């Protein structure tokens, strides 16, 4: 008797594939519906109804367009939670995840624990052309194996890094160490050197030369050092945001904290 190799993708069962796709779609619909229950989007709004089908579109470009619109929608309250949901919903094209993740990272940052952060970027990089521009992809590829990076923080954050967003430019780190309205003291400028493999994305938008670092592995090649910043004012254009309700709230907080 001949035994069929069910693991051979060339001889996959079309019926099985349809069933798996259906299960993944239902799972994705459940994950998106949970966003309203968790108040990541407005509870009594219609965000889930308006965007679910569009986010599940198998066409990479249409799904990415839907994700950009969805993450900027006024009913979005916790943009990071929405992006994490996109990553966990396997039926949502990775182009949609990557497009939304780019906007969140540039506009306000992805708030997630290190393991979740690593997972989200691992998934998004499957559609890297939607996560970064060709210029950014080339710049990332051209980085040396040991990458000097810098980070600016308010004084209340202390001299240890509090997030995964760093920069290749000392000047940008200085901007983020500028005094705020709530605390007129200069903040901290951090510096270290990381392995190139720890850099999961590079963004050139807004002239920040931003790099996102995955700290779940052996990222640091030397200890983090800190000194007080010297910048006296925070650039106004960095307080702008395109993200729904969360973006508006972020802009309000920024206006209260910065000169």
Brief summary:
The chain has helices at 14-37, 47-55, 60-72, 79-88, 94-107, 114-124, 128-131, 134-141, 170-176, 244-257, and strands at 146-153, 165-167, 188-195, 199-203, 210-213, 225-228.
Chain-wise SSE layout:
Blueprint: H1 14-37, H2 47-55, H3 60-72, H4 79-88, H5 94-107, H6 114-124, H7 128-131, H8 134-141, E1 146-153, E2 165-167, H9 170-176, E3 188-195, E4 199-203, E5 210-213, E6 225-228, H10 244-257
Helix pairs in contact: 1-4, 2-3, 3-5, 4-5, 4-6, 5-6
Q: How would you portray this structure in words?
A:
Helix content is about 45%, strand content about 10%. It is α+β, with helices and mostly antiparallel strands and about 260 residues long. The strands form two sheets. The chain has a three-stranded antiparallel β-sheet with strand order 1-3-6. Residues about 245-259 have low confidence and may be disordered.
């Amino acid at each position: 008797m001949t035994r069929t190799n069910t693991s051979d993708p060339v001889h996959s069962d079309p019926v099985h594939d349809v069933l798996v796709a259906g299960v993944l779609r239902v799972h994705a619909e459940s994950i998106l519906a949970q966003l309203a229950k968790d108040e990541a989007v407005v509870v009594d709004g219609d965000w889930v109804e308006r965007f679910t089908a569009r986010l599940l579109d198998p066409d990479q470009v249409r799904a990415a367009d839907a994700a950009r619109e969805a993450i900027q929608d006024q009913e979005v309250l916790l943009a990071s939670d929405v992006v994490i949901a996109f990553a966990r919903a396997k039926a949502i094209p990775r182009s949609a995840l990557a497009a939304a993740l780019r906007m969140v990272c540039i506009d306000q940052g992805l708030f997630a624990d290190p393991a979740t952060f690593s997972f989200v970027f691992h998934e998004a990089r499957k559609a890297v052309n939607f996560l970064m521009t060709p210029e950014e992809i080339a710049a990332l590829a051209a980085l040396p194996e040991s990458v000097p990076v810098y980070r600016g923080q308010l004084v209340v954050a202390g001299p240890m890094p509090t997030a995964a967003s760093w920069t290749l430019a000392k000047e940008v780190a200085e901007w983020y160490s500028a005094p705020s309205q709530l605390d007129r003291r200069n903040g901290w400028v951090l510096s270290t050197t990381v392995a190139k493999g720890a850099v999961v994305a590079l963004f050139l938008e807004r002239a920040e030369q931003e790099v996102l670092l995955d700290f779940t592995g052996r990222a640091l090649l030397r200890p983090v050092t800190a000194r007080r910043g010297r910048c006296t004012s925070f650039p106004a254009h960095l307080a702008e945001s395109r993200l729904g309700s969360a973006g508006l709230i972020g802009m309000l907080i920024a206006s209260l904290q910065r000169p």
